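Narrative of activities, Objective 1.

The group set out to show that a structural description can be obtained from nothing but a protein's sequence at a throughput compatible with the screening campaign. Below is one input-output pair from the validation batch, recorded exactly as produced.
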Amino acid sequence: MKVEIISPNKLIFEGEANSLLLPGKDGSFGVLNDHAPIISSLTEGSVKLSTDEGEKSYEINGGVVEVLKNKVIILAD
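Output recorded for this entry:
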């Protein structure tokens, strides 16, 4: 799935990922290919991506995520 992590200042990550682990307001949750559409608020924590090149992790201070048709957009604080 295509993933974009965007902060107010710059594009943090853009690329393909096999899975994501996100810090949701009500607890961490995962996203895989063909995930149901969702919009959720995020809290401070780590966004963890599994890519073909390995694991990647990005710290955020909160934000919003939208998952739609194998595209994930994270607007991070």
